[in-house]
Amino acid sequence: MVTPVWSAKKPSGKSVHAKMDPKQRAFFENKIRPVLVKKCYSCHSSQAEELGGKLRMDTRDGMRVGGESGPAFVEGRPNESLLIQALRYDGLEMPPNEPLPESVISDFVTWVKMGVPDPRVAHPLIAKKPTEENTEANPALWSFQPVSDPVIPAVQREEWCYDPIDQFILSRIESKDLRPTEDATPATLVRRLHFDLIGLPPTVEQVESFVADYQRRGQRAVAHLVDELLASPHFGERWGRHWLDVARYGESNGNDGLGRNPTFPHVWRYRDYVIQALNADVPYDRFLTEQIAGDLLPATNPEEKDRLLVATGFLAIGSKPAKAMNVNFHMDVVNDQIDVISTGVMGLSVACARCHDHKHDPIPTRDYYAMAGIFLSTETMWGFAANQPLTAPETPLHILKSKNVYIHPPESGVKPVIDKHTLSRKKKPKNIYPPGTPLAMGVREKKKPVDCKINIKGESKKLGPSVPRGFLSACKIEQPPQITAKSSGRLQLAEWLTSADHPQTSRVMVNRIWLHLFGQALVRTPDDFGVYGERPTHPQLLDHLATRFRSEGWSIKQFIRSIVLSRTYQLSSFCDEDILDFDPENRFHYRHNRRRLDAESLRDSILAVSGQLNWEPGRGSAIANVDELVNKASNLHQPSNHRSIYLCLLRHSEPPELSAFDLPDSTKPVGKRNETTLPTQSLFLINSSFLIDQAQHFAKDILAMSKRDERDRVIQVYRSALNRAPSDSELQRSLTLLKNVDTELKEEISQDAIRQVTVWATLCQALLSTNEFRYVD
User: Is 92 or 129 the better-scoring residue by pLDDT?
Assistant: First the structure.
């Protein structure tokens, strides 16, 4: 019998868009294509009765060639593009009946500035069921195939392998008649493990202790260190940040298109839930279930009930559009929830099927609205939205009832700067929640669940037939849970996602974990397992890992432990030149990848090395009592020496210490951050008041060392900052730098003690700004 999975017919010819940046693809699918379908295709497509202006807008090439007036755009230059001029009603007027909202026009301007990334093809892709002749796994839709448990491959050098992972990797390397590089040194490995598992550098003493233990016990020393780090409370702070990227975590709504950015004062509780769940190693299937349907799970005590309610913030914390002039507001909220489930958990862009059948993946519009019914039957609770008339409408919040729940002090000392031009407050209901009431964002069941009608072209006022609540038809599992008439279907959705034979959930998660440990994923588009996502570099290894993850109880910690104890993970990042030439992208894992610290780890490392890091968990948030618009929010970012995950993370107003280093905007799920190298990053490291201040603290600690001469102090600076001693030439250059700076400052600063701090702070800041400090081998 033929397994009813789907396959897709791809267009012939070179695929220019197949390598498109995933964020660009998502921007087009979520912001541009729906508008083109709704507003342009009736006159400018192959289906139009009369092709307006001889301009096709339903294909990429059609817009590039243009119509009677010429090409629709000039890439990168919106002011010179006919498309933008028409949308602005500048000479041309499109659409002719009424102009698009300013926020939509702004999206098109952004699209042109991006270079008009467009994944469409001249002919639509055809999704079809396989026949007897094409039942083998179709590479276009590999992720819809059942997860297999492949045989561990035989290798020539079995003694090299620590784990079955190594055999999958080594078999590919041996097939090319090559060898992996050497093992990383113990000093390199301890630094790598500390950053990967807890996001902080090791101390001088920790490096020395591990190196000595490794020389005595080898791999047993590695296992001991790994177990210590996995048990650390800082593990959840490191890996919680990875999940918060996927969950699109932000403490304000973000610019809603009208210049308004209301705060979410209670979202920090979800942040704390994620950290605690990962520290407790809550199994991933349970972790997902709590976030999707925690309000429907039994609880043995009030503390557990509160925790489960807070977990459902996963579905509530997304950025909301402006309510004003938005007839699709509630369906936009549903779309965000579908997007975080599909992209975040399954690696599929289901939200693309809102207006039409998915153009390349086997996701019909009916499937989209089958899932939409689940969330339309769910009440989403985000609070007051700053109590403003044009923002998202007010909703209730969960009231937490356990005796031990943390209540943020009523006086935060923070007064936001309000943009008076956008301020128009509604009358806030008095005493709806008594002062000090612990509140949380989240979801709960509506009293009367409903199925969703298809919104024709994505318009909530143009309704088609009703679709029973359900799941994706192309993801086949043997016994899908049945949604009852009295439930939204969220609990059944969680059961479906975490069923033993779901093809995407375990694959997507093990791929995300591999990405964070190696700097590149086995599927290099971690948020796109669809037709135009990349294929796995090691498909059998991916399925081995997915099978193993499930069979070992979905334990994230155990899975990470298995990977970091493999020989593959412990390889050096250096290799012979011939290997580098053969595989410059390291797709075969001959070596480890050198990686730059993310924004949070960089800031936390600077604080740790300077001795100023507050190792205790942060409590609450700077905006825990601020329910306002925060268009000008710089003063909400209060000084803090806690880890970066506890900083106030407002959408479109990031903490200044982090903003230069590729933070995601938190409006969409992000599995892999961008990594840019820009002049502003170097300028930040040179001029940042934060780094200058920390360098001074670092210098004071070095100068406080008793009975040490300058040489000893320079060596200590290097060991503290870079986990190694300086070379002879580095030592000499550092001493020369100190002498020269001291000479230059003598006339300016006469007091020796003050001048010495400045002199040594110069060296400290220089080392904290180096690539070696910012990168991990």
Answer: 92
b/e map 629-666, b = 16+ CB within 10 Å? bbbebeebbeebebbbbbbbbbbbbbbebbebbbbbeb
- 30 vs 27, 103, 315, 673, CA distance in Å? 5, 13, 18, 19
For residues 579 and 564, give the distance between their C-alpha atoms in angstroms, rounded to a whole number.
23
Which residue do the tokens 């693809």 mark? 25
- Which residue is associated with the tokens 């618009």? 629
d(CA 285, CA 509): 11
Per-residue pLDDT tens over the stretch 618-640: 999 988 888 777 755 556 788 89
8 A C-beta contact, residue 485 and residue 535: no
d(CA 19, CA 240): 29
SS3 annotation, 352-395: HHCCCCCCCCCCCHHHHHHHHHHHHCEEEECCCHHHCCCCCCCC
Asked if the model's pLDDT at residue 3 lies above 60, the reply is no
Sequence-ordered list of residues with C-beta below 8 angstroms from that of 711, at least 6 positions apart, any chain: 731, 735
Alpha-helical (H) ranges within 28-66 are 33-35, 60-65
What pLDDT digit, counting tens, does each position of 239-292 carry? Answer: 999 999 999 999 998 876 666 788 899 999 999 999 999 999 999 999 999 999
Q: Specify whether the CB–CB gap between 184 and 567 falls below 8 A.
A: no
Question: Does the bond joining 95 to the residue before it have cis omega, within 30 degrees of 0?
Answer: yes
Q: Which pLDDT score is estimated for 135?
A: 29
Tally of CB atoms within 10 A around 109: 17
Quote the mean pLDDT of the chain.
87
Share of the chain above pLDDT 90, in %: 59
CA distance 435 to 439: 11
Sign of the CA dihedral with 180 first, then 181, 186, and 187 last: negative
Residues 6+ away with beta carbon under 8 Å from 293: 312, 490, 491, 493, 494
For residue 616, what are its two tokens?
Answer: 């205790």
Domain ranges of the chain: 17-113, 137-183+504-595, 253-497, 686-776
Tracing tokens 């958990």 back to the chain, one arrives at 345
